[in-house]
Amino acid sequence: MVLTEHNPESKLMIIAGEASGDLIGASLIKEMKKLSSEIKIFGIGGEKMQMQGMNLSYHIKDMAFLGFTEVVKHLPFIKKVQKNLIEIVKAEKIKTVVLIDYPGFNLSIAKKFKEMGMKVVYYISPQLWAWGKRRMKKVKKLIDKMLVVFPFEENLYKSNEVNVEFVGHPLIERVSEHKFLSRDELYNKFNLKKEKEILLLLPGSRKHEINDLFPSMMKAAKRIAEKFNMEGVVACSSNIDKKLFEMFDDTVQFKIIEDHTYDLMKYAKFGIIKSGTSTLEAGYFALPMVIVYKTSFITYLIGKNLVRLDNIGMANIILEEKVVPELIQDDVNENKIYRTSFEILNNEEKYSLIKSKLGKIKARLGTKGASMRAAKSILAVMNEA
User: Which one, 83, 123, 157, 318, has least CB within 10 Å?
Assistant: First the structure.
């Protein structure tokens, strides 16, 4: 059955709360419109989802808070957003919602949608394998279909009797569709020094992440670049104003480059990267790195008591081994980042071993076509609504 604009099933709500979700959501919308050209999509996203025709109720920039204390501080705003989304669902007679990652907000609003009798699809699973079984029970009650991007997630959900489908990771198609610059083109375009390798810094896509992480990353990177004859480059997320980086002293020594993260990952020698999707992307390109992560003290304490994982970086989690070092909380400081990076860059054998192990990530992410498989699955759920 093809959906048409003459019935309410041709309308869908999608909620993505951060830059990585905007990327994934944009690919999903693009494929859904190939299958059903009249579909109308509402919800939360960014420029990329909007460019694919989504009606934005809120922009991901409005949703850039993370962690327990940050969420508590923004509770009045969160309640307002949820109320407005529910009003849109009622006004547009939307029967299906797709939640993309962003579990703090999405699992909360999923309960409200479920109470309204909506079909709820979760695409890019919340990391329940890290948070324990209590949340698994919650998800089983709230979610009609879980679309996962890692094979081990499918096994986990099946064993807990959750309706699940492994669609593969959309990163595979994004990389295959990316028009890469050659190394010379990249260096010429941004006036990089050709005699130097790239030291890549990815401090995150949220303002508070940059404030927390970037000063230490930058100071350590300055020393690493000098020691190993490298050039520091900051990959700037499209939803962050470059001027934010320019407020820090010493940033003048770094190139700040927007929208060329994959090119930079492909040609960089080493990365200092905030924990998150970027570590998976860097792992795909087999880029040796140090993973850094810092949050508020209260959020960290709560997380430490709840999380059941040995590793926080997606590259390490997928490989089920601490292949690249992780620096958390107080360890995110200039000296620790410098020493940890030095130990890898100063040891050719260690560097090559890390690169070799990261090379296994690509094979674990499935095959091309994740967004189309997800789109078909979601349309099937909509047709049942």
Answer: 83
For helices 75-92 and 103-115, give the axis angle rounded to 10 degrees: 40
Task: Give 124-181 pLDDT, tens digit per residue.
Answer: 987 655 555 567 778 888 999 999 998 888 988 898 899 999 999 999 998 998 999 9
Q: Is pLDDT of 322 > 70?
A: yes
Dump strand ranges (E) for the chain. Answer: 11-16, 40-45, 55-59, 96-100, 119-123, 145-148, 164-166, 197-202, 230-236, 255-258, 268-274, 289-293, 326-328
The set of residues, in sequence order, having a beta carbon less than 8 Å from that of 23 and lying 6+ positions away, is 48, 170, 174
Domain 8-168+369-384, what architecture? 3-Layer(aba) Sandwich (3.40)
Provide the CB-side half-sphere exposure for 256 (13 A, CA): 19
Residue 295: which pLDDT band, with cuts at 50, 70 and 90? low
Fold classification of 176-365 (topology level)? Rossmann fold (3.40.50)
DSSP secondary-structure letter at 346?
A: T
Residue, of 248 and 110, whose pLDDT is higher: 110
In angstroms, the CA 326 to CA 313 distance is 7
User: Considering just the CA atoms, what is the radius of gyration of the chain in Å?
Assistant: 21
- Answering whether pTM is above 0.85, one says no
Letter for the amino acid at 281? E
Say if 8-168+369-384 and 176-365 have the same CATH topology: yes
User: Which among 119, 117, 121, 162 is positioned nearest to 28, based on CA atoms?
Assistant: 121
Does residue 22 have a pLDDT over 50?
Answer: yes
Report angle CA 62, 143, 56 to the nearest 5 degrees.
Answer: 25
Give the confidence band of 203 by pLDDT, cuts at 50, 70, 90. confident
Q: Where are the domains of the chain?
A: 8-168+369-384, 176-365
Q: How far apart are CA 107 and CA 17, in angstroms?
A: 12
- Judged against a pLDDT cut of 90, whether residue 372 lies above it is answered with yes
d(CA 230, CA 335): 18
